[in-house]
Amino acid sequence: MISKIIKSITLCTALLLMATVSFAQLRLPAGYYYKQLPNGLQVVVIENSKVPLATIEIAVKNGSFTEDSVYNGLSHLFEHMFFKANKDYPTQAQFLKRTQELGAIWNGTTGNERVNYFFTFDRDSLFQGLKFLNAAIRFPIYRVEDMKKERVVVDGEFQRMESNPFAQLYISVNKKVWGDLFTRKNPIGIHEIINTATPEKMMVIKNKYYFPNNSLLTICGDVKHEEAFAMAEKIFGSWESSGSDPIAKYPIPKFKPIAKTDLFVQESSISRVPYILYEWQGPSYETDSASTIAADVFSTIVGLNASKLQQALVDKGLASSVSVDYSTSRYTGPISIGVVPNPNKVKECYYELNKQINMWSQADYYTDEQLKDAKAILLRNDEYAKEKPSSLPSQLSFNWASTSLNYYTDNTDDYQKVTREDIKRYLDTYVVGKPFVGGIIINPELNKTVNAASFFAAQ
Amino acid sequence: MAQNKAYDFMVDGVKVIVQPSGNNIVEIQTVIKGGVQNYPAEKMGIEAMAMRALTECGTLKHDKNSFKNELDKVSASVYAYTSKDYAVISMSCVKPDFDIVWPLYTEAIDQPKFDTTEFSRIKQDAINDLHANESSPDASIDKMANKVAFAGRKYAEEPQGTPEIINGLTAAETKAYYNSILTKSRMFVVVVGDIDQAQIEAKVKALIAPIKKGAPYTMPESFFRVYNNSFNEESKELATNYVEGVTSGPQLNSPDYYAFQIAMRIFADRHFLDIRTNNGLSYAPQAWFSSGSTSVAKFSVSTTMPNKYIAVFDKLVDSTKHNGFTPAELADMKVTYLTGFYYKNETNAAQASSIAANEVLHNDWRKALTLIDNVKKVTLTDINNAFSKYIGNIVWVYQGDTKKVDPTLYKNGTLHQGDNPVNN
Predict the structure, then answer these.
(1) Is residue B420 part of a domain?
(2) Number of domains making up chain B
(3) Rounded distance, CA B151 to CA B132, Å?
(4) DSSP summary character for residue B76
(5) Which domain holds residue B115?
(6) Which of A295, B313, B354, B422 has a Cα-to-Cα distance from B388 of 20 to 30 A?
(7) Which residues of B314-352 are buried (b: 16+ CB within 10 A; e: fewer)?
(8) Virtual CA dihedral for A125, A126, A132, A136, nearest 10 degrees?
(9) Which residues of A244-269 are buried (b: 16+ CB within 10 A; e: fewer)?
(10) Residue A31: which residues within 8 A CB-CB, separation 6 or more?
(11) Is-contact A217 A33, C-beta < 8 A?
């Protein structure tokens, strides 16, 4: 909503209006404090004194959703380069030395719709930690020789992923689900793009997305919000805004729907157990946020031991596990079903799985009690999710990037309001009778007896 | 900190350790000591199957489905697992549900049914899990490293067993096995949550009432030392190659214990810097101290250049031994330990696990809380001596493209220093 408003107005007005709108409408949980700096940087302070630590995180709306085939994998390489060198710490040895002096536990992640960098350290190191973060995010140094080394590291991460058969199947399925725009859902990228990346390409990413008005700074822990805001303003206040919303300036193309159901068999010598993955294009937060909520409730229902799905597959010994998931996204999230079938009953498992999916929109597929239980689970899961203070910034920024801060705040309450009609609408719109992509990865030896291609195919 | 002080007390011969949490979550872990010491090699996996059966094969009061459905309703978990040194039966719930979950937890421990139909089902699941684990390159290389390094020792046994052994187990023999290890003498209970002492005492008393006393159990310790470098390889069609090395480490009661722990943490930072940053040889270079009844140091990488890796590794070990660590590295690592200590205290489950591990391994759960004091006492000389003392010859294992690796580099070392071919 806010970004749509920004699109149509000039910079200064936009920032003022954004601040006004945000303050008027913003809802945050107790103990969370919000402030937007004049340069557009949003800052959230979460006061939580469970342990005497502070966690700081900067999140940026970047990731594979911004990447075409020329840049696929470079948001991720950029994230790695963040930890390499900057004006205050010109080599990675000096950078790492500084993290050690701070006693920091740190990492970064690159996803589809967000890149985040986070550090946890003693609460008294907050100011120093923020200065360190500021140098890394605003003043990175890209050297050809550093990049050459880091390209191999990032490619090594990719190769590790490819050495896992489940990940192999995941990539194969996703290529078919997202078609020409697969790169927009593939943060790990493409080997040759990673291996030919240059400092110039890093600067292109920086100059497109790495601005305060495209970032969220979260400070969580045994801190006081007034002091934390003052530090944030002092350190990050001079970071210059780009003047416009980068995501509006470089629009994200729309995914083409899956044309028809596509089922395939993939043999892999390293797959010691077969694995089935189905995937549909699901709801987007931008266009159907109600279905993103209904999706989570439905996934929880079919995860119940008492559910028809678990009883038909796991209880009857056709599968070791089956899980249904919707990945909340601003730009079309995938709905997936992952199944580890009993190797001796792959065919029966496959038929039963399809039978179950076909019944999903029937009113009696789940009981009122199961709907109630699912909501009770989601209520309690919120308690577990909020147990670990150092994990809160990441949870918050995920929603900031893929939904909104209000979505994060209201999420658990919104689950409680979901009706049967909401779930039916979600399933009818995105799943039941809709085209999907399904793959099975299987060892060639096992497949000699299973002959998966003889049944695992679109009818 | 928002937590009150931890304490312990005895209930009918069983130690109960309580860490008030200051939050709304309750985590309980009942520990059964022994692990691989409890069963012969030809039955490895039986304890893992017994643990799986506790929550997957029904109880005398609930069949499997009604047991799991009750837990689902309150989003609580009751599950059990075993490792090389001990088994854990845990429960986790939010505090208002405690009175619903506790009876299910006690049923699982005291009255497991070992239903034969359900047992057949979980055997297939366990076999599937073993195969799935084998598909994970990190798990697979670690398993291979343990098997080769600990050959001839109890520690070579895999708690999860093998598909063949699991396939041959019956519900009856697994139940009999469980009854043989469920003794007060092997047990203790860890509670992390805000439950008052009187309530815990009454509940634990009822939990252990039907459990026999049993013979006292003492964990046997075994020292691990490698006398020659070795290299074992397995050809696998992977996108990269996995390397893991195993060498010596101090025993649990050794005066070098904390010094070596710190030395390995600093070495891990150096290893990361040299392997990943300076040479771009691996995404995930790791070095760590794995402590247990057999304690070892381990090193691992995934790399497309295994020959270059061993050359860089050898130089790094050699320079660390010759030049030692720096005072700044030690000072910084002490700060990092402090962060890590509090970081672990963020969740009830992590606190319970740390308390349980210290009670089993050191016979002193308080070491989970006094870690920082022990770390503070360590000197630079301590860590330099500990590193040189334990980092010696290494058992190397390798999975991936065997044409890319030269085993002689791993076996003979790469430094070519005079008459000693083994430089590590």
Answers:
(1) no
(2) 2
(3) 24
(4) -
(5) 7-208
(6) B354
(7) bebbbebeeebbeeebbebbebbbbbbbbbebbbbbebb
(8) 140
(9) bbbbeeeebeebeebeebbbbbbebe
(10) A46, A47, A48
(11) no
Query: Does ipTM come in above 0.85?
Result: yes
Q: Are A420 and A363 in contact (CB under 8 A)?
A: yes
Q: Same structural domain for residues A207 and A320?
A: no
C-alpha–C-alpha distance, residues A141 and B28, integer Å:
49
pLDDT of residue A163: 87
Tell me if A46 is assigned to some domain: yes
- Give per-residue pLDDT as tens, A2-11: 333 333 333 2
Give pTM, 2 decimals.
0.92
Q: Which two tokens stand for residue B347?
A: 């969740």
Phi and psi of A51, rounded to 5°? -135, 155
For helices A392-402 and A405-417, the axis angle rounded to 10 degrees is 90
Do A274 and A245 sit in the same domain of this protein?
no
Q: What is the tens place of the pLDDT at every residue in A390-447?
A: 999 999 999 999 999 999 999 999 999 999 999 999 999 999 999 999 999 999 999 9
Cβ proximity of B47 and B38 under 8 Å: yes
Two structure tokens written together for A251: 């629009």
Residue B71 pLDDT class (50, 70, 90 cuts): very high
Phi, psi at B55, each rounded to 5° = -110, 0
Phi, psi of B196 (to 5 degrees): -75, 155
- Tell me which chain B residues have a C-beta less than 8 angstroms from the C-beta of A52: 1, 342
Mean pLDDT of B83-102: 97
* For helices B171-181 and B116-135, angle between their N-to-C axes, nearest 10 degrees: 80
- B21 has a pLDDT exceeding 70: yes
For residue B145, give the DSSP letter. H
Helices A92-101 and A126-138, axial angle in degrees (round to 10): 160
Q: Is residue A257 part of a domain?
A: no
Q: Do the Cβ atoms of A101 and B125 come within 8 Å?
A: no
Question: Which amino acid would we find at residue B251?
Answer: Q
B196 plus B110 within the same structural domain: yes
Instruction: Give the domain range for residue A436.
Output: 262-454
3-state helix, strand, coil in chain B (%, to 5): 50, 20, 30
Same domain, B197 and B249: no
- In whole angstroms, give the CA distance from residue A99 to residue A92: 10
Q: Read off the tokens for A454.
A: 């003889």
Neighboring chain A residues of B242 at a CB cutoff of 8 Å? 163
Whether A162 and B239 lie within 8 Å, measured CB to CB: yes
| Residue of chain A minimizing CA distance to B339 | A121
Residue of A49, A101, A160 with shortest CB distance to B284: A160
> CA A218 to CA A34: how far, in whole Å?
9
Q: Which helix (H) or strand (E) holds B323?
A: helix B306-323
Q: CB-based burial of residue B163 (10 Å sphere; 0-12 exposed, 13-18 middle, 19+ buried)?
A: middle
DSSP-based three-state secondary structure for B182? coil
CA–CA distance, B113 with B105 (Å, rounded to integer):
13
**Judged by CB atoms within 8 Å, which residues 339-378 of A form the interface with B?**
340, 342-344, 373, 376-377
Distance CA A129, CA A217 (A): 12
